[in-house]
């Protein structure tokens, strides 16, 4: 997420910028991985989607062209999109019924705290970049 704040300073933004292309991949990934996890299994699909995310995020740091970079980031977003629906349903499956709402709220809260942390780190890094 930090790179979404830093990338506009490195490359020219366009209609499909490096920050927004990830969300396009996430949109399609959520539909694909969410449906597949009901058929194959949540743990299996979570591992596969995170592997896709990790591999293409790593690969995106080595590509030379901007179009290949955008493609890698979109496929990485496709993997991230699998984590969102799978993690919430997988987490809700293993929780006791009386604590399910509280713990899902904690999960959502720490997801947002991570976004705020990434924003704060970008705010600290950008003036020195």
Give a concise summary:
With about 130 residues, the chain is mostly helical.
What does this structure look like?
- The longest helix is centred in the middle third of the chain and has 29 residues, at 66-94.
- The model has no long low-confidence stretch (mean pLDDT 84).
- The protein has 129 residues and is mainly alpha-helical.
- The two termini are 17 Å apart.
- The chain is built from 5 helices and no strands.
- The protein is flat.
- The protein has helices spanning 2-6, 18-40, 42-60, 66-94, 100-125.
Structural class: mainly alpha
Q: Distance N terminus to C terminus?
A: 17 Å
The chain-level mean pLDDT equals 84
Biggest sheet layout: none
Count every helix, treating DSSP H or I runs of 4 or more residues as helices. Answer: 5
Q: How many β-strand runs?
A: 0
Low-confidence stretches: none
Helix content: over 70%
Strand content: under 5%
Roughly how many Å is the radius of gyration? 16 Å
Overall shape: flat
Order of helices and strands: HHHHH
What are its keywords?
single chain, mainly alpha, 129 residues
Furnish the topology, listing elements before pairings.
Layout: H1 2-6, H2 18-40, H3 42-60, H4 66-94, H5 100-125
Helix pairs in contact: 2-3, 2-4, 3-4
């Amino acid at each position: 997420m930090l790179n979404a704040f830093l990338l506009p300073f490195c490359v020219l933004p366009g209609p499909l910028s490096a920050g927004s292309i990830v969300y396009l991949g996430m949109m399609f990934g959520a539909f694909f991985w969410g449906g597949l996890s009901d058929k194959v299994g949540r743990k299996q699909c979570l591992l596969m989607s995170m592997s896709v995310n990790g591999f293409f995020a790593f690969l995106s740091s080595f590509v030379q062209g901007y179009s290949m970079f955008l493609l890698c980031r979109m496929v990485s977003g496709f993997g991230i999109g699998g984590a969102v629906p799978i993690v919430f349903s997988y987490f809700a499956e293993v929780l006791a019924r009386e604590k399910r709402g509280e713990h899902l709220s904690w999960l959502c809260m720490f997801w947002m705290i991570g976004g705020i942390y990434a924003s704060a780190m970008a705010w600290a890094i950008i003036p020195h970049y």
